[in-house]
Amino acid sequence: AGSYFLGFVFAGLAVLAPESQDQDRIGLFVMLLLLFHVAFDVGATFTRRVLAGEPVTRAHRTHLYQLCQRLGRSHRHVSLTHYGMSVLQALALVWLAFGLGGAERLLTFAPFVVVYSLYASMTWRRARRAGLVR
Questions:
Q1: d(Cα 96, Cα 31) in Å, to the nearest integer?
Q2: In 3D, which of 14, 13, 29, 38 has the Cα closest to residue 106?
Q3: DSSP letter string over the chain?
């Protein structure tokens, strides 16, 4: 039930942000940062599956959050980890909107790219050892 509301809010912000009067086109950055977590997981999972020779059109349980649960993390632990990252993304959004200008805005994404890449790498390494992915 909560996911419907959050999905609606994120979708609404992604649509409304570009319509703002901002001359710096911050709306694009807002949309990308709001959806970064989902986009990274989908993109990384898709890339990993292509490189492993897995059929990408077949159902699977190899998204990062699914692998974490299958590796023994509780639903609560996985959810709190992802919620925490979402909160950090929201704080970065405020910093992006009110503290940065121009090309510096791209730097807002750098910590998230690094953290999510490390998270994905560690999760996939553990999942390979456990025989959950190739």
A1: 12
A2: 29
A3: -HHHHHHHHHHHHHHHGGGSS-TT-HHHHHHHHHTHHHHHHHHHHHHHHHHTT--TTS----SHHHHHHHTT--HHHHHHHHHHHHHHHHHHHHHHHHH--GGGGGGGGHHHHHHHHHHHHHHHHHHHHTTS--
Residue 96 φ/ψ, nearest 5 degrees: -60, -45
pLDDT digits (tens, 9 = 90+) for 7-45: 777 777 666 655 555 556 666 677 778 778 888 898 999
- What pLDDT digit, counting tens, does each position of 85-125 carry? 888 888 888 887 777 666 777 788 888 899 999 999 999 99
Q: Kindly write down the DSSP assignment for every residue of 65-92, as one continuous string.
A: HHHHHHTT--HHHHHHHHHHHHHHHHHH
pTM for the whole structure: 0.74
